[in-house]
Amino acid sequence: MSGTAAERAPRAGVSASGRERILSRIRAAVAGAPDVEITRAYRTSSDPAGAVELFAERVADYRAVVHVVEAGEVAGAIAATLDRRAPARLVVPDGLPEEWARAVRSAVEARAADAGAEPGPGAAAIVRDEPVLSAAELDAADGVITGCALGIAETGTIVLDAGPGQGRRALTLVPDYHLCVVRADQIVAGVPEAVGRLDPARPLTWISGPSATSDIELNRVEGVHGPRTLEVVIVR
Questions:
Q1: Any residues with CB less than 8 A from the CB of 76 and at least 6 apart, and which?
Q2: pLDDT tens for residues 18-68?
Q3: Which domains does the chain have, with CATH numbers?
Q4: What DSSP designation does 91 have?
Q5: Listed residue (39, 48, 79) closest to 194, CA to CA
Q6: Rounded-to-integer distance, Cα 106 and Cα 112, Å
Q7: Are 114 and 108 in contact (CB under 8 A)?
């Protein structure tokens, strides 16, 4: 390589002066041009009819497990789901509705009684995020149950914003199983409605099915970046 280090070093101000020359030419080229109004006719609403059914269909398309139940059946659906899944250690965030929390406690206590397990690290238990669980502790949990901020029918997307009953983002990104309860009044038709209802200052997690990716040969692998299994209880 020829030249001294000083000669090879980029000269200070070269990039800045080049940028200014380009901007000057642009300003000269558009000088006197009339202002053009840019029309942004974005869709801001969609037909809400059949939103619950469409949401259930689209969520199932992502290979999530979906249950649609009536309002009085949600506790039973949670208990039945956990009975089938049989998690030993389930993370439960603060603010989960008491009816759902009771169903979780009953299912976990029933599993512990059936197993005849003594209290201890291996016993079936509800895990709280207080004090804050480490990544290793979350990874050791069998799953998590949460509510959500809203669901989007057209895309089958669930959005969490760390509100009551949802917990911080890590709770739904690290455990291998996520059971999410979505109420009908939380389901909007499309993304524009969702954006209008969400607070952009909150930590938003958009979930479209279980975590999945594929390699160059399009072999699907689930559970790489989040829960391998997503189960959704939709409450009419």
A1: 69, 103
A2: 889 999 999 999 998 988 888 877 777 777 789 999 999 999 999 999 999
A3: 51-235 (3.40.50.10420)
A4: E
A5: 48
A6: 10
A7: no
**Separation CA 31–CA 179 (nearest Å):** 59
pLDDT over 60 (residue 206) = yes
- Tokens 């070093």 belong to residue: 9
SS percent in the chain: helix, strand, coil, step 5: 35, 20, 45
Look at the alpha carbons of 51, 56, 61, 63 in this order and tell me if their dihedral is positive or negative: positive
- Structural tokens at position 192: 């524009």
DSSP state of 67: E
Q: What is the residue whose two structure tokens read 């979505």?
A: 182
Which string of DSSP letters, residue by residue, matches 30-66?
HTTPPP-PPP---------TTHHHHHHHHHHHTT-EE
For residue 187, give the nearest of 92, 93, 94, 57 by alpha carbon. 57
Question: Could you read off the pLDDT of 144-188 as tens digits, one per residue?
Answer: 999 999 999 999 999 999 999 999 999 999 999 999 999 999 999
Find, among 143, 173, 167, the residue nearest to 81 by Cα: 143
pTM: 0.77
- Angstrom CA distances, 79 to 61, 107, 145, 180, stand at 24, 6, 12, 13
In this predicted model, what pLDDT tens digit does every residue of 219-228 receive, in sequence order?
777 777 789 9
| Per-residue pLDDT, 124 | 62
For residue 1, the model assigns a pLDDT of: 47
Residue 111: pLDDT over 90 = no
